[in-house]
Amino acid sequence: MNLDLALDTYVAESRELLEQMEEALLAFAKGDCDADRVNAVFRAAHTIKGSAGLFGLDAIVEFTHGVESVLDRVRDGLVIMDPVLANLLLECSDCMRQLVDAAGAGDTGAVVEEAPALRQRLSVYLGEARETSCAGARAQPPARVAGSAGDWHISLRFGRDVLRNGMDPVSFLRYLATVGDIVSIATLADALPSVEEMDPESCYLGFEIQLCTAADKQTIEDVFEFVRDDCQIRILPPSSKAADYVDLITALPEADTRLGEILVSSGALTQAELEAALASQSDCDQLADVPGAQEATATNRRLGEILVSQEVVREPVVQAALDKQKQGREAKGQEARFIRLDAEKLDRLINQVGELVIAGAGIGLAAKRVGATEMLEAASTLESLVESVRDSALQLRMVPIGATFNRFQRVVHDVAQELGKDIGLVINGAETELDKTMVDRIGDPLMHLVRNAMDHGIEQTDVRIAAGKSAKGMLSLNAFHESGSIVIEVSDDGGGLRRDRILAKAVERGLVAPDADLPDREVFDLIFEPGFSTAAKVSNLSGRGVGMDVVKRSVGDLRGTVEVDSVEGRGTTIRIRLPLTLAIIDGFLVAVGKSVFVVPLDIVEECLELTPEARAETSGRDFLNLRGQALPFIELNQLFDIAGPRSPRENILVVRSAGRRVGLVVDQLIGEAQTVIKPLGAWFQTVKGIGGSTIMSDGRVALILDVPGLLEHVHRPASRREVLKSAA
Questions:
Q1: Model confidence over 498-532: pLDDT tens digits?
Q2: C-alpha to C-alpha distance for 664 and 671, rounded to whole angstroms
Q3: CB 604 within 8 A of CB 584
Q4: Using the 8-state DSSP alphabet, how is residue 472 labeled?
Q5: 149, 240 in Cβ contact below 8 A?
């Protein structure tokens, strides 16, 4: 086994479990506590601790053991899960996350400074049952009457060679006492030979033990793990456990699982007992006579009979497992299967598919030049298959945005406490999917927006009440698809943006003229200027004018746009609009002179000819009359300073983005084409209006237009327009 890969898997799974823990603990902090959530948190902590032991991550094992012990007492009803305990456990989950991250970075012996203080605070909830470490002695349960319904019966026979193998039977009995109370123990000497035949290095003793413990069957068997091959052991649960096992099996998720696996999952059977029973089953000569169609059922029945005959599992428990297996088989067709995939491998696949798209387009172009019918048909078939492969490959990179949204549950909880505000978070559209690359990169901009909304947007409780609002402020994260893009909204019901204050600050800084009459959208866009802030005081959250410009730049790097809608006294909505993917798009090719540009096809509305008559009507203005409505247009040859002869026939490509539309004046409309997006080099990063490049089927390079940037240019007043010039 490659332990490095296994450790990476452990770290990834532990982070997922910690996210699940955090989600449940946040619900506890709000007073929403139920048994299912408590059990889920306990299982997550137990899994993290147990797996950490396999890699020798003692710091994780020791710290998580304390968390697990407290959660166990919560499950038993000995400790109440209140918001105070929930907040403490949230701090503990942060500590666990730091330890897991350190292990992932190779520092398996990392120490978290806050860990000792957190363990001390946890000990308050452990009371007399406090456990110093995972391997430490457990508090003994109250004494019970021998032979009572709650006693486990252990039948133990050590092998003859156990002493020669360096094992001391008595030490195992002492260790057994650490997991429970040994009510009675009987030593069996029936295998003792005569004195003359006795070998002092051989073991002839057996033991019948009654153990009172709350531990499960696997824990008891683990006591004898190192001597398992040198002894015969049978562990019989209390009679009262049979009903518990039946309930556990019934509650298991439906899956097409073998009988033995169901019994092991419920704790009614240990893995070693299952292997022993399967070994007995393999010796049965009747297996060859079982018809193929009935083999599975008959085999399960015989396995169940073996387990019952060996008194390892009671018959009602076996029957419950058989019923659960039947349900699992019926639900198999509806089961979704997932695999964990390395992101780098997926990126390589997308790149290769992109190159395949380019190569396929080249083959199609060559077929047209040759004019061979069979080649054209084959090229058409290839193009269809490549498009299907492209869509399937891109779908692999699409992930729900809900995981990103859920992270802000903790952010809202912590920041609200720090600010002394009562703020709730509402999430909508968590199932909306977008490119994995964009999910990873949109987290930081959203963090800025959420923290600003909580700090500057939502008022203090007394201010809200005085304004006739509810005492609790609400923050909303929403995501949905619209016109081939994904829209993410961050909304609050706070005080909204103060238009007059923003405009005054802009005039003070010289961003706009004192007599400028700007629409609300232009005024609100000023908050994205570098260093712009109207905050009366600076806090550790915001107020320095750093953040909002970073948000706009980060979204722009993703070929997206940011819009602001706000009503003073009612709240603000900041809307981020992003393309669905950064890898491959369907584009529309246009030419200006000898330069070729690509426009994303999903924003193209229509194409029309710019006749000499329509050109004359513009009279030097930058808009024309389109069926009774004014359509602003951009002449790409002037915008990008493209020299050379022009086509005598001009065309207009009408595009729409973020509810606004504009016409692009071009020389030639080439048509649709699959476009593989290639990033621009460092020298071209500052070029406005260009979002990337692509390689066409004939080998030429075409530039991909940043249409949202062009729309911003055309809708911005002349006094605030930027000069967009570059060699195309």
A1: 888 888 888 888 888 888 778 888 888 888 887 77
A2: 15
A3: no
A4: S
A5: yes
What's the per-residue H, E or C state across 231-243? EEEEEECCCCHHH
d(CA 668, CA 595): 10
Residue reference for tokens 């109370």: 181
Q: How far apart are CA 279 and CA 712, in angstroms?
A: 74
Residue 2 has pLDDT above 60, yes or no: no
517 burial level (CB within 10 Å; 0-12, 13-18, 19+): exposed
Closest to 632 measured CA to CA, from 618, 621, 622: 622
Identity at 237, one-letter amino acid code: P
Q: pLDDT digit string (tens) for 183-241?
A: 888 787 778 888 888 888 888 888 888 888 877 777 888 788 767 777 888 787 776 55
Secondary structure tally for the chain: helices H, strands E: 23, 21
Encoded tokens for 128: 């007399």
β-strand partners of 247: none
Match 């238009």 to its residue by tokens. 499
Average pLDDT over residues 306-327: 74
Measured distance CA(438)–CA(179) in Å, rounded: 50
| Contacts for 371 with CB less than 8 Å, ≥ 6 apart | none
For 205, residues 6+ apart whose C-beta sits below 8 A from its C-beta are 158, 169, 187, 188, 189, 191, 192
Read off the pLDDT of each residue in 556-562 and give the average, rounded to a whole number.
81
Say which residue the tokens 């997206």 belong to. 560
* SS3 state of residue 51: helix
pLDDT digits (tens, 9 = 90+) for 572-607: 999 998 876 666 777 899 999 888 999 988 888 899
Residue-averaged pLDDT of the chain: 78
**Would the pLDDT of 422 be above 80?**
yes
Q: Which residue has the tokens 């006294």?
A: 569
Residues in a beta bridge with 654: 606, 663
480 contacts 487 by C-beta, under 8 angstroms:
yes
Within 13 Å, how many C-alpha atoms sit on residue 300's CB side? 19
> Is the pLDDT reported for residue 250 higher than 80?
no
Strand order in the sheet with 561-567: 423-428, 473-482, 485-492, 571-579, 561-567
Q: Contact 96/64 with Cβ under 8 angstroms?
A: yes
Could you give phi then psi for residue 384, rounded to 5 degrees? -65, -45
Mapped onto helix, strand or coil, the DSSP state of residue 110 is coil
Gap between the terminal Cα atoms of the chain = 54
Strands 473-482 and 423-428: parallel
Cβ–Cβ under 8 Å, residues 390 and 708:
no
Beta bridge partners of 180: none
Specify the pLDDT at position 144.
37
8 A C-beta contact, residue 493 and residue 570: yes
Residues in the chain: 728
**HSE (side-chain half, CA atoms, 13 Å) at 157:** 6
**pLDDT tens for each residue of 476-495:** 999 988 766 789 999 999 99
Q: Which residues pair with 488 in a beta bridge?
A: 479, 576
Give phi and psi for 133, each to the nearest 5: -160, 170
Q: Which residues contact 588 (CB under 8 A, 6 or more apart)?
A: 598, 599, 600, 601, 604, 653, 669, 670, 671, 672, 673
